[in-house]
Amino acid sequence: MPDGAYNYAYLDEQTKRMIRRAILKAVAVPGYQVPFGGREMPLPYGWGTGGIQVTAAIIGQDDTLKVIDQGADDTTNAVSIRRFFARVADVATTTRTEEATVIQTRHRVPETPLKDGQILVFQVPIPEPLRMLEPRETETRTLHALTEYGVMQVSLYESIARHGRIAKTYNYPVLVNGRYMMSPSPIPKFDNPKLDNNPALQLYGAGREKRIYAVPPYTSVKSLDFEDHPFEIETWTECCALCDSKESFLDEMIVDDAGKRMFVCSDTDYCQERQQQHRPEKT
Amino acid sequence: MYVAVKGGETAIANSLDLVADKRRGSRDLAELTLEQIDQQLGLAVDRVMTEGSCYDRALAALAIKQARGDLVEAIFLLRAYRTTLPRFGDTQPLDTTQMVAERRISSTFKDVPGGQVLGPTYDYTHRLLDFSLAAAGERPEAPTAPVDAGQALPRVGDILEREGMLEPPPAQDGDASQDITRTPLVLPADRPVRLQNLARGDEGFLLALGYSTQRGYGNNHPFVGEIRYGQVPVAFAPEELGFEIEIAEIDVTECDMVNQFAGAHNIPPQFTRGYGLAFGHAERKAMAMALVDRALRAGELSENATSPAQDEEFVLSHSDSVEASGFVQHLKLPHYVDFQSELVVVRTLRAEVEERNRQTVLDQAAE
What we know:
The complex is a heterodimer. By secondary structure, chain A is of the alpha/beta class. Chain A is 29% helix and 18% strand. Chain A has 2 domains: 13-223, Bacterial phosphonate metabolism protein PhnH (Rossmann fold, 3-Layer(aba) Sandwich); 235-283. Chain B folds into 2 domains: 9-82, no CATH class; 96-120 and 145-317, no CATH class. Helices cover 40% and strands 12% of the residues of chain B. Chain B has 12 helices and 4 strands; from the N terminus they run αααααβαααβββαααα. Chain B has a 4-stranded antiparallel β-sheet with strand order 1-2-3-4. In chain B, helix 8 (203-214) crosses helix 9.
């Protein structure tokens, strides 16, 4: 039931074309932040307007859309964005990672490996990986142009000097295709290895900052590290209380006043799939 | 348990119903009409039109009603509607000398051609609560002098400029027709882009920045050359016609700020200007905008840019209330994943510190 008052997928065709041109440029120069004429969307800035614009520009009636926030399909913002596209684009939606052609995500990469032809759209709050080290856009642009990334290496080194390890846990900087430093958006570093050489196309949209960047399929994405301090991901001693997974990213929940903890998969689809496969045999 | 994050769909639907219900308030009272908002909360409508970049009183009134009087929310609503509208082209630049002014004052000259016109303003009121407004009752109409709409009103700045005392309007170094709602902000920005950004900028933010320049953070000794408020015609020249047609009359407030300037190596001492323009009657906004515009010209005038108001990246990147409000409030969104990652690393670091401390105690005991 597309809303008659608005164009298909909300944005007008000219705007979608402009965004697609920016996407093509972003794909051609992996990891480079392409400025685009970001529009004001009916959802607030910081709530996924960049991802929504990218999705609106690429989505068609044959697509199947999945939207996740923190890995879950049913968190408030994921529900809100899925409802938005169901309303303005009349598109089929799913919670199954395997069935989706377009997956819009905030803060996670699905645990289920992605396939050829799928597109993963990231919502990005601050596209510039160097922003917290250098607040000026004019400066960071120059640093990228010169591949002058020493400031980030120094910051990681300082973390090792202070804590004995790299204490950065999410939004962990990566080098794309051996050239541009890129913010993977605030995904946990647990997900960084999934970006490398992924068969799916990764599109990153930052609405407030008006930037789009991309990682084409099968592109090298390397998390920054040092020879003597190699990149490593989070680990848990617990396993998922619902599906027993030991490989997935676990969310921690406080279940009573005494502070009792329970760990469950952050990726709800992955967790449910596993529960259906394994649990019936046990009970 | 885990159900806490399930059932989002129903909960959201209920939340939407609740906010609509709150908006309506007590059903014992008559519902506000858009005309009432337009007529009786006119300055709120002006602000929403200005920062919403859309001159439409009815739409702005609707946004205010829908937002329950939250003007930043109303601005957001109007912007999100505006963005879907097609763009036909650019109007001719407004000629504010053709304004039918309801108010026009200069604080630099006792009298100016066209005269000082006080008009409707709170400036000369005593801020005493008028309890007679709490009761219903009609007010007699205020007497007004006849307005000579045909009389052009020369700008005070132009008079000073002819004498060479005031710089001419800064050279047009950018493409005035570049629309910042269609193209991304690229820094350093030219002045048309800056002025567009300031015109859409949050009044509170600009007011504080303008105020900071007066308190010494980038002072440039401002005088109000002129403030005028009234109706100006808007002309549009469709390409297929090749001549101008007048398509509307709009209310605007214009502020020409005159600032001291000691001169630079190739410029003699003279007065410089800062410019502010807002839809409707919005003097505070127009003045704040003019102060900040002048402060941002520091580089161009070879002044030391040391204060926040003179820092273009700082000002232009943070002026927009819709951007700021969205990003600040996105902190309400779930962040469990990032927080979980932080928990994991902080626990590891704490465990290491505790282990080290324990080891130290053991070592000391052994000695």
